[in-house]
User: What shape does this take?
Amino acid sequence: MSNELEAFLEYISVTKALSKRTIEAYTSDLNIIEADLSKSLVNLDSKSLFNLLAKYKNKRTLNRKLSSVNAFFDFCYKSDFRENKTKFILSKLPKLLPKFLSYEKIEASLNLIDRSSWIGKRDYALILFLYATGARISECLSLRLEDIQDEWLYIRHAKGEKERIVPIAKVAKDAIMEYMYEFKTKEFVWLNYQGNVLSRISAYKITQKYLGVSPHVLRHSYATSLISGGADLRVVQELLGHASLLTTQIYTHIQKHELKETVDVCHPMARG
Assistant: This one.
């Protein structure tokens, strides 16, 4: 690994405090490109880059690698490692609406959970928590008892290490308290049957078992419910912990889609 690449990875880890997964993605992308190049990435030119990336046919994969190079080059330019400010244009991708579930679907699935055991109580509380707070699964699994105060949730282990505060519905908090009383947990909230912190894989299996989706779909469902209910986009941005409003705007497309469906079904001129 070149000195410039080491400096960049230290910068995004320490100064920018990006999430572990983001750092891993940058590291993987840039390490592979630099290894193929057999010299420091700082000297990479456009022709060499596109020759190296020609093997990637998937546009999303290609865009991710170009984004990694753009971030690296921006750092190198600002650090005087490169004289020219270089930025590669990403491929245009079709906008995909995030998958989400209706409240009715979530409620119906919750009613099917057997809550006579502590595992059932945990699964019920976990699904309620994810839908009631919009928390990322990484934020959820790092939750400690002290992070729930009154009817507020303090997310201290958020993406980029930024703390935010979101309200938590009483029904979700009550479900957590019922589960915790049963298991007598005293530090981390979400545990497996051995008393260890619940893993991402286990959390995925829980939401897949009852809802047929990943935990992240409940975050989308949370945001979609707020937008459909008339919540201000900037408020939703704050609740989700998005750094940019552009990231939150994807949910407005869902609202527009719902409006069009309503007109298509209800307006007489749309039936022709």
Remarks:
- The chain has a mean pLDDT of 84.
- The chain is about 60% helix and 5% strand.
- The longest helix spans residues 59-78.
